[in-house]
Amino acid sequence: MMRATLLSALLAATLLAATAAPAAADSSFAGLINGCPLVVLADVTVEADGTLVLRVEQVLKGHAASVLRFPTSSPAVEPGWGRAIVAFFDPSTIAGGVTHAWHVTASGAVDPERIGQLPGIPQTLAAMLAWFGVAPATDTERAAGAMPGSDWRWALLALGGLAGLAWALRYSRPSRQPKAATSS
Predict the structure, then answer these.
(1) Which residues of 135-163 are buried (b: 16+ CB within 10 A; e: fewer)?
(2) Most C-beta atoms within 10 A of its C-beta, which of 117, 158, 160, 180?
């Protein structure tokens, strides 16, 4: 019974560590990103019918198709931007307020207009990619579509699960030592 309780506690702690968001104020860049299930680096175009098209260059957090299309009614992304980092609270809409976007210039500057400045926001594309722990996409990856960024929480969860399983197997087996003969 004690072993089962310890195993349950170990697995619960592992799951909590894997899913807990890093401590950050909600008004910071980290706090905003923690609340977004999807963050992408994308090329921005507007089609003739007014549809805003994001051709995903790199997925920084979450999972996304290589092309995202949205109606242009009050978007968080400015139609004149050629490239942007877009953080979605709700990936089904690009409306301002539920989606945050930062313009990326050809030189790699992030949000040079200072529209979406938050404490802790990286000021260059290289720093932004480093913040997310991803390397810049190669031309081959851009042609193949968006590749999801790595997420350390899944690795931690898997490692904790394996450790818990090893512990359970080691300590839940009955002892194989020969029983001492009893004298009468």
Answers:
(1) eebeeeebeeebbebeeeeeeebeebeee
(2) 160
User: In 3D, which of 36, 76, 42 has the Cα closest to residue 56?
Assistant: 42
Residues 6+ apart with CB under 8 A from 69: 51, 52, 53, 54
CB 81 within 8 A of CB 45: no
Q: Is residue 42 part of a domain?
A: yes
Q: Give the model confidence (pLDDT) of 27-74 as tens digits.
A: 788 888 898 999 999 999 988 888 889 999 999 999 999 999 988 777
Q: How far apart are the first and last CA of the chain?
A: 33
Asked if residue 180 is part of any domain, the answer here is no
Total of domains in the chain: 1
Residue 141 is assigned to a structural domain of this protein: yes
Nearest to 170 by CA among 2, 1, 3: 3
pLDDT tens figures, 82-98: 899 999 998 888 887 78
What residues make up the domain containing 82? 24-150
Question: What is the C-alpha separation between 93 and 16, in angstroms, rounded?
Answer: 30
Residue that is written with structure tokens 């019918």 in the block: 49
pLDDT of residue 85: 92
pLDDT of residue 174: 66
DSSP secondary structure code for residue 72 in this structure = -
